[in-house]
Amino acid sequence: MARKRAGSKRGASVETENPHTVMPVPVATKLPDLPEMPSRIPASMRLPLLVTLSLGMSAFLYTLASPFTTGDLATVSAHHDQWWEVAGLLLFKVTELAVGWWEGYDTIDQSALTFLTHIPYLYFLTSLYKIRPTTAIACLSIDLASNCIPFYLLRSLLAPHRLKIPKGAVANRSVINDLGVQIFTSLFATGVYGVVVFVSFSTRMPTYLILNFKNMESLESVYNSPFLLLCAAFVPIGIAAKTFLFTPAVAARPDAHEEKTALFDAEEATLMETLLYNVWGHSKRVKTLMERTAVLALLVGLRTALHTYIAVDGAEGFGAVAWSSVWVLAAVLTGLGFWWVGDVDGMSN
Predict the structure, then answer these.
(1) Which of 215, 216, 241, 243 is deepest in the core (most CB within 10 A)?
(2) 3-state SS record for the chain
(3) pLDDT tens per residue, range 232-288
(4) pLDDT at res. 55
């Protein structure tokens, strides 16, 4: 397809436009805002209500499921004799919800984040302490429901997660809706997590586990886990990582800061301006990916270490931190991988 470019009447130039190229969204263009879900609840009351709903729902559902899960969990759970242990778990629950609310996540974002941050502890219990998979699934389902249903009730879906939105409300809509891209990025994240966990099991992690967890049932699953089987089990993790990290980053629209960044002049800038440009002078897409990767790494590290140390009987602090570090590394490497995957020609910044 060819088009004529404006110019003099003589020798008007012609340039070729590739119909498959994703056209960048102009920074100066005023894009339509999406309507917010109407609510009579004051903004200052929504976060306290969110926390109250989540804690109440979690307590009710765990009580309801206790006849089916107590037997398994009682065999591995430590007795919480110190007030700070219970307070620490409760404080993290509130922090997890508050971070999601302050960062502007919707119920789909929060579902993916909850899945990614809760899986390491449950995988630890099922693979090394031999609790039933049904118990782990029940616990994960309760955590997902109690964390995400309140978000669904109090906040509308973000633009990338809506089926019908105004044209131009998100960048790279064709990329977001491309099934091949979704499959590739999900499998990519699955592979990153699989490689990190498999390598940790093949190196020093078994030693750390033996020395720092007194009542561990068996290490058989650590030594007898084929890489492909491990990756197959991690496919849901890859889908969640794609949902939480890749999709929002690719959908991020350029903002006013990006327009200022485009005018940066290294010759006239001060030293501080140059440092800020090098650290935070990235596109909106890259900054969104960096922020979400940092949130994921921080929360998965804190939750895995905290729950493994406090909730598992016979756990030592060093072992809990070592186990959580595996998942922090996987999250960071996945974010870096998505940065590289998204840095291609034709992708809107």
Answers:
(1) 241
(2) CEEECCCCCCCCCEEECCCCCCCCCCCCCCCCCCCCCCCCCCHHHHHHHHHHHHHHHHHHHHHHHHHHHHHHHHCCECCCCCHHHHHHHHHHHHHHHHHHHHCCCCHHHHHHHHHHHHHHHHHHHHHHCCCCHHHHHHHHHHHHHHHHHHHHHHCCCCHHHCCCCCCCCCCCHHHHCCHHHHHHHHHHHHHHHHHHHHHHHHCCHHHHHHHHECCCCCCHHHHCCCHHHHHHHCHHHHHHHHHHHHHHHHHCCCCHHHHHHHCCCCCCCCHHHHHHHHHHCCCHHHHHHHHHHHHHHHHHHHHHHHHHHHHECCECHHHHHHHHHHHHHHHHHHHHHHHHHHCCCCCCC
(3) 999 999 999 999 999 998 887 776 555 566 555 566 666 666 666 665 656 778 889
(4) 96
